[in-house]
Amino acid sequence: MHAVITILVGGLSEAVPLFLIASGLTLIYGVMGILNFAHGGMFMFGAFLLVWILGGGPVSAGWFVLGSLLAALIVGAMGLVVEPVLYRPLYRFEPQVSLLGSYGLLLFLVGLAPVLWGDQFLSQDIPPTLAGHSAVFGISMSNYNLMEIAVGIVIAALLALLLKKTTIGLRATALAEDREMARALGVRATRVNLMVFGLGSFLAGLAGALIAPTISISQSLGVEFVIEAFTVVLMGGLGSVEGALLASIIVGIVDTTIVTYVPALTGYSFYIILGVFVAVRPQGLFGRLTASET
Q1: Cα 215 to Cα 14, 126, 211, distances in angstroms
Q2: Which helix (H) or strand (E) holds 140?
Q3: Which residue segments constitute the domains of the chain, with CATH numbers given?
Q4: Which of 88, 120, 195, 246 has its CA 20 to 30 A from that of 179?
């Protein structure tokens, strides 16, 4: 039982950043039809910005939360600029053009990071109040991992409310389901695209901020995590936020299990999981291919 709970908590905490970055990625694809490689760059900027805001040293949990939200808001604002400047002029072309544009933006962001923050690895201390451990069912668990799980639950609930209960969410869902019909009924696709891209960028920035205290931060994050995020998106089904959530949990738990019991396969777990899903269920868990051209 001890091992099961340890793997479960570790897997769920690993799943939270994956869900945040993958949910933004799948939202952008579902509504706008763009496979946004630059999402990895937004994630990387979230981590760098947190260190820049907090200075890398120990801070209180309150300041850490505020710093994470500020980093995510800055990245979200970047998305609000990038969408009309870079992506919007490309919508009239074939989807491959937007794909190349997003990859070009990723390379730009990866190249810009060392200019702004240097080429050395950076780090951010975990807040002292979150650096300890708490007992869960009599088992000692990292407070930071527990905090990540709580954040994931809150964000998943807020996303569900946003998509199902708000005007912008319902319009985004309508565009994802049938873009031409939604536009015929008066949905302003341009405005919805902007809001969705900004939200997706915010989620990527928040994911980067949350994972910053647990890793060494460098420009390589922009490439490494976008591959993992695409793995989760493909497993969940393109365009499905629910699929991204479930796939993130599966990946997190399976990866933690492999690292615990088969450490020789560390680093390969994502490829193993994706290979199994492609063979068994190539359309993903929810398999909702709803993206259409703008």
Answers
A1: 12, 11, 7
A2: strand 139-142
A3: 2-280 (1.10.3470)
A4: 246
Q: Which residues contact 119 (CB under 8 A, 6 or more apart)?
A: 218, 219
Q: Residue 100: which residues within 8 A CB-CB, separation 6 or more?
A: none
Give the Cα separation of 275 and 185 in Å (integer). Answer: 41
Tell me, letter by letter, the H, E, C secondary structure of 252-278: HHHHHHHHHHCHHHCCCHHHHHHHHHH
What is the spatial distance between Cα 60 and Cα 136, in angstroms, rounded to a whole number?
A: 23
pLDDT tens-place values along the chain, 294 residues long? 677 888 888 888 888 988 999 888 888 888 888 888 899 999 999 999 999 999 988 899 999 999 999 999 999 999 999 999 998 888 888 878 888 899 999 999 999 999 999 888 999 999 998 888 887 767 778 889 889 889 999 999 999 899 888 888 888 888 887 777 877 878 888 888 899 999 999 999 999 999 999 999 998 888 887 778 888 888 888 778 888 889 899 888 888 888 888 887 777 777 788 888 878 877 777 754 444 444
Task: Give CA 155 to chain center in angstroms.
Answer: 11
Report how far apart the first and last C-alpha atoms of the chain are (Å, whole number): 51
pTM for the model stands at: 0.89
Taking phi first (over 0 means left), then psi (-120 to 50 degrees means alpha), and beta for anything else, what does residue 86 get? alpha
